[in-house]
Backbone:
């Protein structure tokens, strides 16, 4: 059994020492470490990857420091539209579920989890499946993997999840960020004292427009002792986004992905196609580049033949698995199918590690950055990062890379030490003094 591992992120973007005072960094670091320690304890006690990952994200949804749940950013119209998703490498029929356009579900990640778990019985004849109704019945999400708005929130209420009024998500700093983003420097009194009576920022003077406020997604990737991995992700989206906008967080393969596969040693059998013998040997390679059938059948690998001969048992095989969560400019993740692309690179290029694939997608000069074209560095387009875990031969490797100013992330390294970082290098008060 593998050793449980996890990594969490708390947003990425144009973060620099000039807009992230060291004291503020320490506040974020303490929150991330709290989530990391709590989740680590759960895993040590035998929690599943699904339970551990979703609980980690729930903690961040309840913390106004992050852009999800309480403290999420506002749409252009001044509303809140939350998104969350969850995906596992095995054990659940749907594998991935996501929820969008939420404004009354306190913890969107728990709703995504509920859809995944109930997917085991929806339509199967159980009480969740509507007494045998193949459509899933009125109490379930049917076979759907993504649901949004009033439809899914009605399900959430029926399933007993905690519902809140929209004002619950309001915080002073996010509201001022919203107003400034619309060019309204004078922040109107919108009943702040009443709306923010339980707010995190109630004792502060407000936001000065310069200090960094995380606008990215939060997420957690977990490997449990059974070898299952889960990725859980949640966000409020982009500040002042248009109402109805759907980002990468609930889009399977864009902002999150998890899968496992049998990694087998393939050996070509050398079986030739009938036409091959009619073509001079010197031309076979040239024509084969255009007409692959002329190369001859690649044939089944020895392992594939053994699978049939020995009742499906795989020989000389190992399970590989990957799971990733992205954060940053969601539209760029959507256009590049970022996380699924990274996973495919690792799966179908056997010599490539997940770390190398993530670097190619989310690292400096990678696919996300290239997707922005000449808009790079001007609009925030293409900026982002990815965290993940790769499992090979029962050994887990933590992965993280980003192309922007910084990405909040926390994990326990291979030596068992707690790590929390935002920049490429360690951030300390001395580092800040040196930069100034």
Residues:
């Amino acid at each position: 059994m593998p050793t449980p591992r996890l990594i969490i992120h708390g947003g990425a973007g144009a973060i620099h020492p000039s807009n992230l005072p060291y004291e503020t960094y320490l506040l974020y670091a303490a929150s991330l470490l709290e989530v990391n320690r709590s989740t680590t304890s759960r895993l040590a006690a035998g929690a599943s990857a699904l339970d551990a990952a979703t609980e980690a994200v729930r903690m961040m949804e309840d913390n106004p420091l992050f852009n999800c749940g309480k403290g999420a950013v506002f749409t252009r119209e001044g509303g809140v539209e939350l998104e969350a998703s969850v995906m596992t490498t095995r054990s659940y029929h749907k594998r991935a579920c996501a929820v969008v356009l939420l404004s009354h579900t306190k913890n969107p990640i728990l709703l995504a989890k509920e859809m995944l778990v109930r997917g085991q019985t929806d339509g199967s004849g159980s009480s969740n499946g509507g007494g045998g109704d193949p459509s899933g019945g009125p109490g379930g999400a049917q076979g759907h993997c993504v649901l949004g708005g009033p439809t899914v929130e009605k399900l959430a209420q029926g399933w007993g999840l905690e519902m809140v009024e929209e004002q619950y998500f309001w915080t002073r700093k996010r509201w001022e960020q919203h107003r400034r983003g619309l060019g309204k420097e004078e922040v109107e009194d919108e009943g702040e004292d009443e709306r923010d009576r339980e707010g995190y920022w109630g004792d502060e003077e407000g936001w000065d427009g310069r200090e960094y406020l995380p606008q990215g997604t939060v997420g957690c990737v977990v490997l449990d002792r059974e070898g299952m991995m889960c990725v859980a992700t949640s966000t409020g989206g982009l500040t002042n986004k248009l109402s109805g906008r759907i980002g990468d967080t609930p889009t399977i393969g864009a902002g999150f992905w998890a899968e496992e596969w049998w990694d087998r040693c393939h050996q070509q059998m050398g079986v030739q196609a009938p036409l091959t013998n009619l073509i001079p040997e010197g031309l076979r390679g040239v024509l084969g580049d255009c007409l692959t059938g002329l190369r001859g059948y690649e044939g089944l690998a020895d392992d594939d033949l053994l699978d049939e001969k020995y009742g499906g048992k795989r020989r000389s095989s190992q399970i590989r698995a990957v799971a990733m969560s992205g954060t940053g400019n969601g539209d760029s993740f959507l256009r590049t199918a970022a996380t699924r692309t990274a996973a495919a690179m690792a799966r179908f290029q056997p010599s490539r590690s997940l770390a190398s694939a993530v670097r190619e997608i989310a690292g400096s000069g990678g696919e996300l950055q290239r997707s922005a074209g000449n808009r790079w560095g001007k609009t925030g387009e293409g900026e982002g990062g990815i965290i993940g875990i790769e499992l090979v031969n029962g050994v887990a490797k933590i992965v993280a890379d980003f192309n922007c100013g910084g990405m909040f992330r926390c994990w326990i390294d291979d030596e068992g030490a707690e790590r929390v970082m935002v920049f490429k290098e360690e951030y300390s008060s001395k580092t800040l003094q040196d930069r100034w």
Remarks:
- Residues 22-44 form the longest helix (23 residues).
- Residues 111 and 161 are 7 Å apart (CA to CA).
- The mean pLDDT is 82.
